[in-house]
Amino acid sequence: MIGTTEYGMEPGKFRRLVGLKGNIRVFCRVRPVSQEEQDSAADAKTMLSFDSDDDAVLYLANKGKMMTFELDKVFPPQATQQEVFQEVQSLVTSCIDGFNVCIFAYGQTGSGKTYTMEGVPDNPGINQRALRLLFSEVTEKAPDWDYKISVSMVEIYNETLRNLLGENPSDKLDIKMNPDGSGQLYVPGLTEFTVQSPEDINRVFELGHMNRATACTNLNEHSSRSHALLIITVSGFNSATGNRTQGKLNLVDLAGSERIGKSGAEGSRLREAQCINKSLSALGDVINALRGKHSHVPFRNSRLTYLLQDSLNGDSKTLMMVQVSPLPSNMSESVCSLKFAQRVRSVELSASSSSSRRHENSSTSSSPTHDSIELDSPPVTPAPLPLSRASSAGSTLSSTSRTPSSSRRRSQSQLSTGRLKLTA
Ligand SMILES: Nc1ncnc2c1ncn2[C@@H]1O[C@H](COP(=O)(O)OP(=O)(O)OP(=O)(O)O)[C@@H](O)[C@H]1O
């Protein structure tokens, strides 16, 4: 039945889905029509509709045809920030158990990526809610475990990395292979802040926002054309057993995905669009190669995929939040985004049979039934605030612990030491 859905879902349904390791899940969020858009009657009528019986389906009326998109979850315009976060929070907290997690917001400019990830001051998005939840989880009393939460913020603009929590955010960062022969990658000079209080969380976001704004004349335009990454590392140490864990949560607000042809870009705009195209294509290629179990995964084809290498690999968990504008004038971009989302999701289906994918069963998640499914390139086109800065050795949070879910907890021999380490 087609109609605006009642927001909500079968309890526990997605809990099982997000528990799957090594898989990619695809959610879609449709942003509301703004007051301004409503006032301009020409572009106010949405072509999208929802299924009140199935919260994973989106319908789109396009050129007289009704297109159906099946995803893992569709959030209608009335979905709140809290409701969206509720559906991702078990993914977020799995990094306390040692998992690497990536959540990407993908979609054309103005489709709501930043609203979903960053949010607005009085209604924060996934980034802030995630950091607050992780902080409160690890500060819960539990014997024996001590945790450290450290945070980095990076922007990738025209294939250049900027250190948004650094003293000199204009400095360009590089990704390098560790010379110790460990095969690990690291980013020399990347700032990691140890979060020790809720106030630190506020400061992190204020500083990151201010540093992002300082190097550009128009923050909105600039943020549309760059990727913003919040990287949260949670390290645990059990003083009774000597076990160590380390998990990483990467929250990524991708650059706008509009196509170059449509935007008619020239000069520096064309270069920006080409860089965006390159990195979004590289992301698609990496997902394709990983799920197809290709012998070579082209992580090095873009800074974005190179930086996220250890969080896309192996038994990491990935969620793509595809953002869609409800306006008819954005329909062709919405179709492109949704088709890309379906392809990403169909790649996931190769990793577990459709009959088993709604049940937690890690053995199916890593045994693809197809060798490879082609994934096309996605469509393209002030002074710092004082903050408790981590030393290069990293300071631990005092008396922070939580009962570990020991069956899923992975021991690791090394803690991050102020440099972001990536497994090659
Ligand atoms: N779910 C929502 N509820 C209310 N307002 C929203 C929602 N999603 C987006 N908006 C508003 O729509 C506008 C565009 O959203 P946003 O800036 O997040 O888009 P974007 O995809 O990040 O764009 P860009 O790629 O240019 O950064 C903003 O004014 C934002 O506040």
UniProtKB/TrEMBL annotation:
<keyword id="KW-0597">Phosphoprotein</keyword>
<keyword id="KW-0968">Cytoplasmic vesicle</keyword>
<dbReference type="GO" id="GO:0003777">
    <property type="term" value="F:microtubule motor activity"/>
</dbReference>
<comment type="similarity">
    <text>Belongs to the TRAFAC class myosin-kinesin ATPase superfamily. Kinesin family.</text>
</comment>
<dbReference type="GO" id="GO:0005874">
    <property type="term" value="C:microtubule"/>
</dbReference>
<dbReference type="GO" id="GO:0007018">
    <property type="term" value="P:microtubule-based movement"/>
</dbReference>
<keyword id="KW-0505">Motor protein</keyword>
<keyword id="KW-0175">Coiled coil</keyword>
<keyword id="KW-0965">Cell junction</keyword>
<keyword id="KW-0963">Cytoplasm</keyword>
<dbReference type="GO" id="GO:0008017">
    <property type="term" value="F:microtubule binding"/>
</dbReference>
<comment type="function">
    <text>Minus-end microtubule-dependent motor protein. Involved in apically targeted transport. Required for zonula adherens maintenance.</text>
</comment>
<feature type="compositionally biased region" description="Low complexity">
    <location>
        <begin position="387"/>
        <end position="417"/>
    </location>
</feature>
<dbReference type="InterPro" id="IPR001752">
    <property type="entry name" value="Kinesin_motor_dom"/>
</dbReference>
<keyword id="KW-0493">Microtubule</keyword>
<feature type="domain" description="Kinesin motor">
    <location>
        <begin position="23"/>
        <end position="347"/>
    </location>
</feature>
<keyword id="KW-0472">Membrane</keyword>
<dbReference type="InterPro" id="IPR027640">
    <property type="entry name" value="Kinesin-like_fam"/>
</dbReference>
<dbReference type="GO" id="GO:0005813">
    <property type="term" value="C:centrosome"/>
</dbReference>
<keyword id="KW-0547">Nucleotide-binding</keyword>
<feature type="binding site">
    <location>
        <begin position="107"/>
        <end position="114"/>
    </location>
    <ligand>
        <name>ATP</name>
    </ligand>
</feature>
<dbReference type="GO" id="GO:0030659">
    <property type="term" value="C:cytoplasmic vesicle membrane"/>
</dbReference>
<feature type="region of interest" description="Disordered">
    <location>
        <begin position="349"/>
        <end position="424"/>
    </location>
</feature>
<keyword id="KW-0206">Cytoskeleton</keyword>
<dbReference type="InterPro" id="IPR036961">
    <property type="entry name" value="Kinesin_motor_dom_sf"/>
</dbReference>
<dbReference type="InterPro" id="IPR027417">
    <property type="entry name" value="P-loop_NTPase"/>
</dbReference>
<dbReference type="Pfam" id="PF00225">
    <property type="entry name" value="Kinesin"/>
</dbReference>
<dbReference type="InterPro" id="IPR019821">
    <property type="entry name" value="Kinesin_motor_CS"/>
</dbReference>
<dbReference type="GO" id="GO:0005871">
    <property type="term" value="C:kinesin complex"/>
</dbReference>
<dbReference type="GO" id="GO:0005912">
    <property type="term" value="C:adherens junction"/>
</dbReference>
<protein>
    <recommendedName>
        <fullName>Kinesin-like protein</fullName>
    </recommendedName>
</protein>
<dbReference type="GO" id="GO:0005524">
    <property type="term" value="F:ATP binding"/>
</dbReference>
<keyword id="KW-0067">ATP-binding</keyword>
